[in-house]
Amino acid sequence: MRKLACAFPIASLLIPVCIFAADFSGPVVSVLDGDTIEVLHNNHSERIRLNSIDCPEKGQAFGNRAKQATSALVFGKEVTLLTHSLDKYGRTIADILLPNGTNVNHALVKAGWCWWYRKYAPGDTVLEQLEKSARDGRKGL
Q1: pTM across the whole model
Q2: Active-site residue 131, yes or no?
Q3: SS3 30
Q4: Which residue in the list 2, 38, 47, 91 is annotated as catalytic?
């Protein structure tokens, strides 16, 4: 009986991690800026930070254009989130997929509306190549 009592608290600590790690789908209800959206999840809005990319902020050059590009891709659409973790502000960090399989994070870099976030994805050769291609093609930013 004593072993069971000890196991329960440990198991209960693991449950939130397992629940968080699950990917989920939902409609995009808000686009805050180019790399931050809100998705309806379990009847409440969850703030999502797009993984491995960095868009200019509101008030910076191209900040509004980056937000518009993100809005055009996702606002009001059902998306699937491939979740990674939480950032220091408590936002879920995720890759965003459209129903047709388009990776929104990649699409934004490819179109030149944001940068590959080297600090948080130093070995991401896909984003590196997409950013290089956008720069060479003088797209977006």
Answers
A1: 0.80
A2: no
A3: strand
A4: 91
